[in-house]
Amino acid sequence: MRPNQRLRSIAPIVIAMVGFVATSCATAPVVTVAAGVPVDGNSFVVRNVRVFDGHRAMEGVDVVVKDGRIDMVGHVTPPTDLPVIDGADFTLIPGLIEAHGHVEAQRELRDALRFGVTTELDMLSRINFTAPQKSRRTQMERTDLADLWTAGSPVTSPRGLGTQFGIPFSTISKPDEAVALVKGRIAEGSDYIKVMYEPGAPLFTTISYETMAAVVAAAHAQGVLVVAHISSVEGARGAVRAGVDELAHVFSDTLVDDAFAREIAAHRTFVCATLSIFGGFQGKNFGAALVADARLSPYLSAAQRAELVKVGPGPKHPMAPYLVRFDVDRAIENVRRLRVAGVRILAGTDAANLTSHGVSMHGEIELLTRAGLTPAEALEAATLAPAEAFHLDDRGRIAVGARADLVLVDGNPLVDITATRAIVRIFKNGFEVSRAVPAVAAAPVK
Ligand SMILES: [Zn+2]
Asked: Are 49 and 148 members of one domain?
């Protein structure tokens, strides 16, 4: 069985329904946490709030968090000994999951969490940095860092895409090297395998279709998913037919036809859109609009501001002959067509690649609605969809038993998707997260 065949499980929804207890609301006096006052501890109630549970919305319900996990959801009788947050006019959504990031420093995990991204799925990094970061994701302690899953080193050919970053890793030349390479990647900490497949691309070599297929088989034999970097329809066709579980970007060298869109859907291959980066590559960086948004700007660090207004590579850049494959208008149209064909879309930003951790997810979610996703579908792409794609069973949803990674926003993102930016409170493992921008460390005095 291919690992993602069980992904369409309805289990999370069943769990949510079990937690939806239809009783009358409590009448006992409650102690309400005043606006702007942080909740103390990791047990509390959000009362009378609109909940988006990862898939659908419920109006005027209560959510009870106990010891960092969701204990009750629905029209319940909450315990009277817990602090209460008045949720009227607010919407509670699962902590966002960045499905395509590159994490190089803890600062980036802090930036992510400050904007409601509680989990990052890294898609190529230095494994000696990312592997030690993974232990927090099974803990329930207070933290100011997003949890991390990592691809670590990519699987690519000698002089293939990814080798230009100067990260030391072994490459692959033929199919019979796949088993040992995959086992080595898993042993050093890769949670999934990232293959770079770029047939016909200028500047870079690529692994062959046969090698990619061998890598997919080797990874699936180990129970590990495979994510493919592609930038062309030809690359996508090969990756889907080789059985990869996810395309790490939508392709945009040409528009997808109905037959191939349906084929991707039939293979149940997820597609991470990463629309934010397509604009950046063409000098149409969406980041400036995020910097200008008063709901986001006060929480940006200086480093994030710089990332968001960075000018993309121009036509004279050494990578320009390759980057011409990235076209934001075609990318948006392809996401539109894939969604119509039934392909499940994930939200990812490629941060911090002309984007910034955390904040750029709010732009990406809006871009997905420009590609025809409903606001609920765009929110699902940033919560439940990546959780199901990557088998993260304790997050990406508001359901009994899930980790209390939550974002409370002012307004209704199901009507105005940019309401995700009007963050009122963020919880990680049930603990409220400070949104204060950390002071930049002073230069050492000599
Ligand atoms: Zn990337």
From this structure: no
